[in-house]
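Customer escalation, tier 2.

The customer says the design service returned an amino acid string that "doesn't look like it belongs to this structure." They asked us to rerun it and document both sides in this ticket. The original structure tokens are below, unchanged.
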């Protein structure tokens, strides 16, 4: 009896200890139980196979033939005698993007500049001769045309809405390898790399590049930078490299600039570029301290060109430009990109700071000749 009672007490004691342990354990998540993770966002699940198949047929391979005149000499008894010149043909290669069904193609100016013959190879291997419609050295853009119908083309996206970190594809023809696709993200916006050479003497190069880490090499120039909606957001133009090969970063001309340039080249053969007529310095901590600016932002007006758009609007030396057409501008590249969307005669709203107060004026942009007339090539 006593023995049976003792065993019953022992069993009850173990049961109580077990329940107590269970209650204490309730406050600690066992290692074998992992809380379910939230489903990944749509951004991390972007499938670029559909984007690639929707865009690759709109990117073309461009071959150009150029002629170089070289001196021809002949040696007689140790004397070098000039014998005239010889014509030497050489080829260059690049990429382009079809932007209309009837054969208008965007590419880089440096791909087709000085070309005597231009041949376009479509993704279906058709070869078509192309003609130069117009070129703009200041943005390194050009438009060429092939005679064809019902071509696959890329719709333009809004490059102003591109975000740093956004995934992108670069499509082109590096090393003559046709239809090559690489992926990356937007690493930065409004980059001014000082790489556009030989602009028309009256024009300042317009550099406000999208920076990406998508692999780009020689031959990608003029190719497409597309977003996850299969829209053209940039024309690939350059790589950051000392040897001509990809080492980590590449740059593209924003699509909003390309739309304006392409439209003008088609209509006039020349880009109708509007100027504000100011020389500016980016406001950093030193400039803000020297000028008494309320914040480290905007562009300090170092000089106003007499009788230009800004002068007529009342902007003066010492003012700090904060916004152009409603968009904040903190770098020279940002300001030139925004102004590059307008034409002479367009009225643009400019917000600026003077003596601690913010003012807004409307400036009518002028062309390089100081008026609002159309300039034709």
């Amino acid at each position: 009896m006593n023995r049976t009672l003792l065993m019953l007490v022992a069993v009850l004691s173990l049961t109580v200890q077990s329940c107590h342990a269970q209650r204490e354990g309730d406050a600690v998540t066992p290692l074998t139980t992992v809380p379910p993770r939230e489903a990944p966002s749509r951004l991390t699940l972007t499938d670029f196979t559909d984007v690639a198949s929707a865009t690759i047929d709109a990117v073309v391979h461009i071959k150009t033939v150029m002629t170089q005149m070289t001196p021809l000499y002949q040696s007689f008894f140790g004397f070098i005698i000039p014998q005239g010149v010889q014509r030497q043909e050489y080829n260059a290669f690049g990429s382009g993007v079809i932007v209309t069904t009837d054969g208008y193609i965007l590419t880089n100016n440096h791909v087709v500049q000085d070309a005597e013959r231009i041949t376009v190879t479509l993704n279906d291997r058709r070869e078509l001769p192309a003609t130069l419609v117009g070129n703009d050295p200041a943005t390194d853009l050009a438009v060429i045309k092939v005679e064809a119908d019902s071509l696959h083309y890329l719709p333009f996206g809004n490059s102003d809405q591109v975000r740093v970190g956004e995934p992108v594809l670069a499509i082109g023809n590096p090393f003559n390898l046709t239809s090559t696709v690489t992926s990356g993200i937007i690493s930065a916006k409004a980059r001014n790399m000082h790489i556009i050479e030989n602009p028309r003497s009256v024009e300042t190069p317009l550099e406000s590049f999208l920076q990406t880490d998508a692999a780009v090499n020689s031959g990608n120039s003029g190719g497409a930078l597309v977003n996850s909606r299969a829209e053209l957001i940039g024309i690939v133009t350059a790589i950051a490299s000392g040897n001509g090969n990809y080492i980590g970063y590449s740059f593209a001309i924003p699509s909003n600039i390309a739309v304006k340039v392409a439209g003008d080249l088609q209509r006039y053969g020349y880009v109708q570029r509007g100027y504000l007529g100011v020389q500016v310095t980016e406001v950093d901590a030193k400039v803000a301290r020297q000028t008494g600016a309320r914040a480290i932002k905007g562009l300090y007006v170092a000089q106003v060109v007499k009788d230009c758009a800004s002068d007529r609007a009342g902007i003066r030396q010492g003012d700090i430009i904060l916004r152009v057409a409603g968009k904040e501008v903190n770098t020279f590249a940002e300001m030139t990109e925004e102004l590059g969307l307008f034409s002479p005669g367009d009225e643009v709203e400019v917000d600026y700071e003077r003596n601690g107060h913010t003012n807004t004026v409307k400036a009518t942009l002028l062309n390089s000749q100081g008026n609002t007339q159309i300039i034709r090539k």
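Tier 2 assessment: The sequence is consistent with the input. The chain has three domains: 49-54+154-268, 56-73+86-146, 278-364. The first helix runs from residue 2 to 25. Sent an explanation to the customer and offered a walkthrough call.
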